């Protein structure tokens, strides 16, 4: 499920993500495709697959920009991000081995590490540590947070009982609770992201058609910089990425994320509380990413 890492680990894609390192997959996005049932006027060759047209998911602003809670020093945040990347490397190595040429998931994670300027020595140390580390297992906890928001909490642990107790404690302390069935409200999808200022919306649509993507959406990264997300089937991530790179595009990240099918609209107080909860979860050493379905009131 979550082993096919994207960045995204807790604020990730994505998200969202892959925000990359934070994994908040629900960073506010806005589809740049015309809403159904509009039909694209650009003539297509018979051999080219049409894009799936969809309406906007939610407002195009970053919901976390309204949160008053001030993050710690940049160096501390950077250290936490690199720690999450190390966990994602461990997951990828555990699933497909330490050679990125033979392990495409590891290759994706390493690309995200480099895009965030993670030192080469730290990357190599993380790979070696993953090979030597004792067996660990992945789990996805399902929870509800402030205002009824939904959370998927991806963890990597060598002690399931201890991890379960810690996640439960953090939820109870910050207005959340474990809740079965939450995963039914999220959809697993492939996402290839690139900087949003580099091309126009019209060009993005043309690229999506040429690359075989199903949709294009506008989003923001952790620094509130615009992103273009090319949405595709999880099995087509590598193909879409390769096609975009062949067309001359600079890819920021690629991988698999969990996108919410329904959204929880929170007021400012609930948004503050939810941010505190998600920060507490992300600070847990065994948490890789947290996916949420939060949408701030416009």
TrEMBL record:
PANTHER family: TRANSLATIONAL ACTIVATOR OF CYTOCHROME C OXIDASE 1 (PTHR12532:SF0)
Pfam families noted in UniProt: TACO1_YebC_N, Transcrip_reg
Positions of the TACO1/YebC-like N-terminal domain: 62-131
Subcellular location(s) per record: Mitochondrion
Domain of life assignment: Eukaryota
Keywords, comma-separated and alphabetical: Activator, Coiled coil, Mitochondrion, Translation regulation
Protein name per Swiss-Prot or TrEMBL: Translational activator of cytochrome c oxidase 1
Family per record: Belongs to the TACO1 family.
Main function: Acts as a translational activator of mitochondrially-encoded cytochrome c oxidase 1.
InterPro entries, alphabetized: Integrase-like_N, TACO1_YebC-like_2nd/3rd_dom, TACO1_YebC_N, Transcrip_reg_TACO1-like, Transcrip_reg_TACO1-like_dom3, YebC-like
Any one cellular-component term (Gene Ontology): mitochondrion
Listed Gene3D superfamilies: 1.10.10.200, 3.30.70.980
């Amino acid at each position: 499920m979550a082993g096919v890492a994207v960045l995204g680990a807790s604020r990730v894609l994505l998200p969202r993500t892959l925000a990359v390192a934070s994994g908040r997959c629900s960073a506010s996005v806005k589809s740049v495709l015309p809403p159904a049932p509009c039909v694209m006027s650009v003539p297509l060759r018979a051999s080219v697959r049409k894009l799936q047209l969809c309406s906007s998911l939610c407002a195009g602003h970053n919901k976390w920009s309204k949160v008053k809670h001030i993050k710690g020093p940049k160096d501390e945040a950077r250290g936490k991000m690199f720690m999450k990347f190390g966990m994602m490397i461990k997951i990828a190595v555990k699933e497909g081995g330490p050679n990125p040429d033979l392990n495409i998931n590891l290759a994706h994670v390493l690309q995200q590490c480099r895009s965030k300027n993670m030192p080469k020595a730290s990357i190599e140390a993380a790979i070696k540590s993953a090979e030597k580390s004792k067996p660990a297992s992945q789990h996805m906890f399902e929870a509800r947070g402030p205002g009824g928001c939904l959370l998927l909490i991806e963890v990597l642990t060598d002690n399931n009982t201890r991890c379960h107790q810690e996640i439960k404690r953090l939820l109870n302390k910050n207005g959340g609770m474990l809740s079965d069935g939450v995963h039914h409200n999220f959809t697993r999808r492939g996402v290839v992201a690139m900087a949003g200022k580099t091309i126009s919306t019209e060009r993005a649509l043309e690229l999506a058609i040429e690359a075989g993507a199903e949709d294009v959406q506008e989003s923001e990264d952790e620094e509130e910089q615009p992103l273009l997300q090319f949405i595709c089937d999880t099995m087509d991530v590598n193909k879409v990425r390769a096609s975009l790179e062949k067309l001359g595009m600079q890819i920021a990240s690629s991988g698999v994320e969990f996108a919410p099918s329904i959204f929880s609209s929170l007021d400012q107080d609930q948004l503050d509380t939810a941010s505190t909860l998600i920060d507490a979860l992300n600070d847990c050493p065994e948490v890789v990413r947290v996916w949420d379905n939060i949408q701030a009131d416009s």
